[in-house]
Amino acid sequence: MSYTTVYRFQDLNGYESVISKANSDMTYEGFGRILLNPGQTLEYKVTGEEQAIVLQQGDMTCWVEYEGVTVVDGAKGQRGNVYDDLPTALYVPPKATVKLYSEKGMEARVFTAYCEEGNAPYFCPPENIEEGEPGEYIYKRKYRFIFGQPGKHNDHITKLLIVGETVSVPGGWIGFPAHRHDYERPGKECVLDEIFSFQMTSTEDGPGRGGVMQHGYDLTDENKKIWDEVNVIEENNTAVALPTGYHTTVALPGTRAYLLWGLAGDTKKYKVQFDERYSWLEGCLY
């Protein structure tokens, strides 16, 4: 039995559903991808879920019609790369119709959370992204809150989704110590699905782009391993479903890793349990 599952994109034109209830153990969250050729338009109605569309590369012009009103009307975003450029994002609630146009071609990745009611559509430009750079040594990284958890940046935009990005230093860790969100323990932990999607680049010229190791595991109350899995990812066309267990990621030496992450539960909430065996490292992390 596998507790974490790697999904590879099929590189389909338009909207591609990658992770859903039908092909995963996820309860609250799904994932998709949008690819548009130069000059292409994509239009669809969102049903039974809200979406957070995060531009990866290229350009997009956005329209969203909601309750008979065009709430987002021709808002434009562009991005050169995910390592150096802040994202443009679009929040789309259920029952809304979204239209995207790309002049030169684009890729976006999409988190979904299952719900029948959402908030108002919102276009999030790069200047409304919160970016920070905590940590020291190989724990140093950039974080970007797109639609943050309660109490964080842009927490009011979505109904359920929590979405952000992290960029590592070469060979660095993202999300260490590992954390989980599997149990409802008021004030300590809550139940959330999480999905990771990666890109990576080598810091030196060479035949490959590098890679990351995504580590998932679970422990007993006595800190004995229940299960332990490592996914080695060397492609920019994957997403990982994390319905249970502790999880963390490290970039291979010479690799700068980009992690797009999203969480969702039955309500908008965020409380995670860190692996307490590594609590002594807190001074290096923040």
From TrEMBL:
GO biological process, one term: inositol catabolic process
A Pfam cross-reference name: KduI
Stored InterPro entries: Deoxy-glucuronate_isom_IolB, KduI/IolB_isomerase, RmlC-like_jellyroll, RmlC_Cupin_sf
Any GO molecular function: glucuronate isomerase activity
Keywords of the record: Isomerase
Claim: Isomerase is one of the keywords in the record: yes
Source organism superkingdom: Bacteria
PANTHER family from the UniProt entry: 5-DEOXY-GLUCURONATE ISOMERASE
Protein's UniProt name: 5-deoxy-glucuronate isomerase
